[in-house]
Amino acid sequence: MTWLYNGEPFVDKGSHYGFVYIITNNITKRKYIGKKFFWTTKRKQVNKKRKTYKVESDWQEYWSSSEELQEDVNQLGKENFTREIIHLCQTKGNTNYLEAKEQFIQGVLEDKDAWYNAWIMIKVRRSHLKF
């Protein structure tokens, strides 16, 4: 199961830092809004010094942090879900901000029958945003 962006399969992350996505259960129409980063930072000790380096995340195989959604994916099968990218983001701050913005706009905490989202967590400063 691949990610879709503007209705087309998404493969090239280019220079983007992350994305905001929506996963839809095609049977119940229940949805989940979340974010995922293309890169993650790892640390390794080399000659008694801590080295930091970037590696690609598991974004291609990712199915959200929601345990409830993951259970439904395992029970119903990946083919019954659609994964769509709704925003490609240049920075970590933009990714965090746009995820929360979409969650508040859609009212994901207000209807548990329509949304898998159980909480919204954000910590963003104006200086983090670069539009």
SSE diagram, text form:
Layout: E1 3-5, E2 8-9, E3 18-25, E4 31-37, E5 39-46, E6 49-56, H1 67-76, E7 81-89, H2 92-106
Parallel strand pairs: 1-7
Antiparallel strand pairs: 1-2, 3-4, 3-7, 5-6
How would you explain this protein's 3D organization?
The chain has 131 residues and is of the alpha+beta class. Helix content is 19%, strand content 34%. A 5-stranded mixed β-sheet has the order 2-1-7-3-4. The protein has a two-stranded antiparallel sheet with strand order 5-6. A hairpin with a 2-residue loop joins β5 and β6 (49-56).
Q: Strand fraction band?
A: 25-35%
Largest sheet: 5 strands, mixed
Coarse morphology: globular
Low-pLDDT sequence parts: none
Helix-strand string: EEEEEEHEH
Give the C-alpha Rg.
16 Å
What structural category do the secondary elements indicate?
A: alpha+beta
Instruction: Tally the beta strands.
Output: 7
- Order of strands in the sheet with the most strands? 2-1-7-3-4
> Cα distance, first to last residue?
31 Å
SS element count, helices? 2
Mean pLDDT: 91
State the helicity in percent bands: 10-25%
Short précis:
The chain is α+β, with helices and mostly antiparallel strands.
